[in-house]
Amino acid sequence: MKETCDIGIIGAGGVAARHADVLSGFGDARIAAVADPDGERAAALAGRHGARAYRDHVAMLESEALDAVYVCVPPFAHGPPEHAVIEAGLPMFVEKPIAIDLAVAEEIARRVAAAGTLTAVGHQWRYLRVAERARELMAGREVRMLLGHWLDKVPPVAWWSRLDGSGGQVVEQAAHVIDLARLLAGEVAEVHALESRTRAGGAPDSDVAAATIANLEFQNGAVGNLAATCLLAWKHRAGLEVYAEGLAMELSESWLRVHTGAAPDVVEDEGLAKTRIDRAFVDAVRGLDDDVRTDYADALRTHRVACAIARSAVTGRRVAVEEGALW
Ligand SMILES: NC(=O)c1ccc[n+]([C@@H]2O[C@H](COP(=O)([O-])OP(=O)(O)OC[C@H]3O[C@@H](n4cnc5c(N)ncnc54)[C@H](O)[C@@H]3O)[C@@H](O)[C@H]2O)c1
């Protein structure tokens, strides 16, 4: 492995810019190339990092001697980029959600496993110090109940308000909370969801529900609830409450409140999860460390839960997460 890890980025939007800034701050990583069908966006991001710009990710993979690739496309565009990276035999960081549905994600997972591709997925909440602290506090206890929420606005990207663009709010946003719930309470067995008839943002062609509520039954017998809305003009709250015998915890992206009866113990997060997730991936690519906390196979389990909720909200019936694989 070279001293400097040359990285290609597919998709040059908001999250790609964030990863590029973080990666460029490491001494052992360099943005070598950026591909986006929007040539101006590719050129702008590439220009900021002294990288080459491409409109086509296949041309980028053929022309560049890359060590790893970040796939930062919108949810609807997953599939062809991942298959091309697997074909090229390169490690791959994929942003969440890994697709808008299960068929695309299941097929990528199958090919990742067959090729032995090193993968990481952008569930950076696993790198929150407060999530690590919550796990320590849960050691030796059984989670009995979880209350998750993502109460937010419609994000300012054109593809978000269409199911065939984003997959809906639970798939696109609340996936972070589902991933955290799985980390603390294990796998979800079954879900039952309801969604409001109001559509996101009120745009005439919007088909994403403005509010969704889901009940979750975990394999270990714990029960949970997830509430998501995009009715607001601001990000109101996103996080998870966890209840065990004699212990209540409230976890957000910035802090953890621990209740054992007296005044809550409040722990502030250091705010480095978005750096730590990229550091872990580069270390894994360079063979220096093995701290990738969500690989593709694991992210698929989170995505199955989100898709099962989406399916249940539409069909109105309980959906086993395994059954969701048919969605
Ligand atoms: N982990 C996180 O906290 C986090 C934060 C923000 C966004 N995201 C995720 O990242 C993804 C992208 O979000 P964004 O805000 O950057 O979106 P965006 O719309 O700002 O950018 C997406 C870019 O991908 C490009 N694109 C579309 N199809 C493509 C293709 N086939 N090949 C290459 N490029 C293509 C678009 O032209 C656009 O420039 C979303 O799935 C989002 O959920 C994750």
UniProtKB/TrEMBL annotation:
Domain Gfo/Idh/MocA-like oxidoreductase N-terminal: 7-123
InterPro entries reported in the protein's UniProt record: Gfo/Idh/MocA-like_OxRdtase_N (IPR000683), Gfo/Idh/MocA_Oxidoreductase (IPR052515), GFO_IDH_MocA-like_dom (IPR055170), NAD(P)-bd_dom_sf (IPR036291)
Annotated ranges, domain GFO/IDH/MocA-like oxidoreductase: 142-245
A molecular-function term among this protein's GO annotations: nucleotide binding
Source domain of life: Bacteria
Coiled coil: none
SUPFAM superfamilies: Glyceraldehyde-3-phosphate dehydrogenase-like, C-terminal domain, NAD(P)-binding Rossmann-fold domains
Protein name (record): Predicted dehydrogenase
